Amino acid sequence: MTEPSGGSSERPRRPVVVPAIALTAFTAVGITALLGGLREAPEEPEALGQGAVIDQGQFTTKVVESRVTVERAQSRFQEDKRFVDVIFDVRNNGDETASVGSPPQKLETAFTLASFAGSLIKIDPAFPEDAGPNTFAQGKGGTTRQLHPGVTSQVVLRYRLKDTDPPPKQITLDVASFEWEPDFNNVTPRWKMVATEAGDKWLPEIKARVTLPVKEGDGA
C-alpha cells in the first residue's frame, strides 16, 4: 500500500519537557561562565568564644573574657565609673617590642597597622566615639603600652559606659592576623597584616570571629 501524498512514514515527535529549575540553573551557569567563570565564595571566619587561642602570626592570643568593671569613686565628690573590658593574654612572638595600639578607626586603613589592638578590625556593637577605647597591658609596675618579645602580657580593651547606659549582652570581634614578609619598597621583611586587594583598597582578612558574653564584673 502506498502512503498518501505528502504523508510521512515517521511518527510525530513528542515534545521534550525540561523542568524550569533545570533551565534556570543552566542559564545561571551560562551567564556566570560569560562573566569569567565560577567564583569561590569567601570562607567564613572561624567562630570562637571564651578561652579560645588564636594564632595571629606575630601574636599568640588567648581570649580570656569580657566583663563590666566598676572603678569606685575616691571621694564623695566623685562618681563611680563603669567600663566594659575585653581581656586577652597576648604573647609577642616577634624579636622586637610591639605596641599594644588601638583598634582601627576605618577598615580601609587597618592593613597599615602592626599593633596588637590594630588587629581587632571590627567590634560589634560599636561604642560611641567618646567611650574610648583605652587599651593597655598589665605590668608589674602598673600599665604599659608595650608588648615585649617572648613575653605573655594581659591586654585590656576598655570602653567607658555612661551612667545610664546598660552594657551590651555580648561583644563580637573580627580579628586579623600578621605575616612576616618583605615590604612593598623594601626587601627587609617585617610583620604585616594579612590583607586582600579589593579595587583600590586593601582589606584585612578575618582570621577569627570571637563572640563573648559580657559578665557583670567586680569593682576595680
UniProtKB/TrEMBL annotation:
State the source organism's domain of life: Bacteria
Which residue windows are transmembrane per the record? 16-38
Keywords, sorted A to Z: Membrane, Transmembrane, Transmembrane helix
The protein's name: DUF4352 domain-containing protein
